[in-house]
Each structure stands twice: as structure tokens, then as C-alpha cells.
Amino acid sequence: MENLEVKIRNEFFVSALFVESSLSTFLSEKHNINSFNDSDNTEFKLGFDQKMELLLDSNILSIIDKSKLSVYREIRNEFLLNKNACTIEECFTSPNSNDDFLLILYPQSEYLPREEKLTNACYQLIGEVSQLVSTATNKTEVKMKKNRSFFNLNTSAFSRMAIFVSFLFLR
Questions:
Q1: Where does the pLDDT of residue 113 fall: very low under 50, low under 70, confident under 90, or very high at 90 and above?
Q2: Which residue ranges make up each domain of the chain?
Q3: Which residues, in sequence order, are CB contacts of 162 under 8 Å at separation 6+?
Q4: What DSSP designation does 129 have?
Q5: What is the DSSP code string of 82-122?
Q6: Distances in Å between the alpha carbon of 114 and those of 19, 110, 119, 166?
Q7: Residue 84 burial by CB count (10 A; 0-12/13-18/19+): exposed, middle or buried?
Q8: Rounded-to-integer distance, Cα 147 and Cα 38, Å
Q9: C-alpha separations of 85 from 6, 44, 64, 80, 120 in Å
Q10: H helices of 41-97, where?
Q11: In 10 A of CB 77, how many CB atoms?
Q12: Which residues neighbour 117 within 8 Å (Cβ) at sequence distance 6 or greater?
């Protein structure tokens, strides 16, 4: 697997940490209970998909924004399931054609190879989903800089663990 494919996957997973952290905080504040957070409460824990589903079921987002979040969740799951795939294109195995949806949502130059189009579209999706979740949950968005050391350490939405894990991925 090339370095570019590894970077996009890692950045996808790092952004998923931000999304999950923001959703955990938002859901616990909204429902005024701690069981939505990743605490020691073993009675009721929600995973990434369940937290996303709660946000998707809310009336906070438009239909298009819900579609972006849904595709983001599916792509994250595809990256997890297809961790041994050699290319980004090989990761897209869902019958939902998430790769085609990405290229419709984020059109790319027709002269680029499909792999590069998908990579660019994934970066665009990461940025939009991060912005959507940040706006919906009123949490500080994490901005990615060109050099990929993109953490604003004043951002309260990230747990210490997420920052630690992200530095490991982006080394």
C-alpha cells in the first residue's frame, strides 16, 4: 500500500475520533446523562455507529447533510473491514456504491486517475463532516494543515487519548 492510501485512512480514523468525541459530549449534554460518554458505566455504552444514528435521527441536519454523514460512517466501516486492501478503491466494497456517491458529491478533474479522485473526495468529505459535526454539536472543529500536524491543543472536544493516538498515526 502506498503512503497516500495510508495517510487518507489514518486521517479518516483521526477525524472519526473527533466526530465520536463530539457526539459523545453532545449526547451526554443533550440528554443530561453520562451514560452516552465513554465512561466506566457498563450498563449503557454506545458505539460509533449508534452515536451517528442518533445524530442522523435528529432534526438538526438537512437531508443532504445526513447523506454525507451516513456515507462517512459507511466508508469508515469499509476502511475498517478492508484494512488489508492495497488501494483506496479496493476498500469500497459496499453495494451502496459509496465511491460513486463521493465522486458525484465531489466532482474531480476527469484527467485524474480514479484512485486520486477518490482520495481527494475522501479529504473533502472529512472536511465537510468535521464541519457539520462541529456545527451540530457546537464543538470546536479540528482544522487540518498542509503538514498534517493539525491539532489545536486548546480544542476541548479531543480527549488526551485521541491526541496521543493521532500522533502515533501521523508520524
A1: very high
A2: 3-169
A3: 14, 17, 18, 21
A4: H
A5: TTT-SSHHHH---TT-HHHHHHHHS---TTS-HHHHHHHHH
A6: 27, 9, 9, 27
A7: exposed
A8: 31
A9: 11, 34, 29, 10, 18
A10: 48-57, 63-81, 88-91
A11: 15
A12: 103, 108, 109
Cell numbers 441536519 label which residue? 61
55 within 8 A of 136, measured Cβ to Cβ: yes
The H or E element spanning position 23 is helix 3-31
Distance (Å, whole) CA 170 – CA 14: 9
Q: Are 15 and 129 in contact (CB under 8 A)?
A: yes
Are 118 and 88 in contact by the 8 Å Cβ rule? The answer is yes
Report residue 164 as a C-alpha cell: 496521543
pLDDT tens digits, one per residue of 36-77: 444 554 445 788 888 899 888 888 889 999 999 999 999 999
Residue in the structure block whose three cell numbers are 478533474: 109
Mean pLDDT calculated for residue range 110-114: 92
